[in-house]
Amino acid sequence: LIVTRGAEGSQIFSGGRMIDIPCAKPEAGGDPTGCGDADRAGLLYGLASGMDWETTGRLASQIGAIKIAQRGGQNHHFTRDEIAARYKQSFKSALW
Q1: How are beta strands 2-4 and 17-21 bridged, if at all?
Q2: Residue 66 in contact with residue 34, Cβ under 8 Å?
Q3: Which residues, at least 6 apart from 36, have a Cβ–Cβ distance to it below 8 Å?
Q4: Which long-range contacts (CB under 8 A, 24 or more apart) does 74-80 make?
């Protein structure tokens, strides 16, 4: 079970434990339209790649933070390297 809490991050409940996922800081405030879809994209990528729940949740948070800085539902763009750099800045650990 995943509970998203907007700017408060999210909580993942799995295997009898709760994992708190902090919210990645966006570069700019903006339009939340599409943030849920961006978050799910990060979750699906993490799960498909075999990442653990904490890393998967943080990746989802980071992609949501990238999205919210852009107006519109799907006007955000990023590269794998940009995601890795922003993830390291947000969570002080390497993604890949």
Answers
A1: unpaired
A2: no
A3: 4, 64
A4: 74/34, 74/37, 76/34, 76/38
Maximum pairwise Cα distance, the chain? 38
3-state per-residue secondary structure call for the chain = CEEECHHHCEEEEECCEEEEECCCCCCCCCCCCCHHHHHHHHHHHHHHCCCCHHHHHHHHHHHHHHHHCCCCCCCCCCCHHHHHHHHHHHHCCCCC
Separation between Cα atoms, residue 35 and residue 41, nearest integer Å: 10
pLDDT at 27: 81
Residue 61 has pLDDT above 90, yes or no: yes
Q: What is the dihedral of CA 6, 9, 15, 16, to 10 degrees?
A: -90
Higher local confidence (pLDDT), 85 or 30 = 85
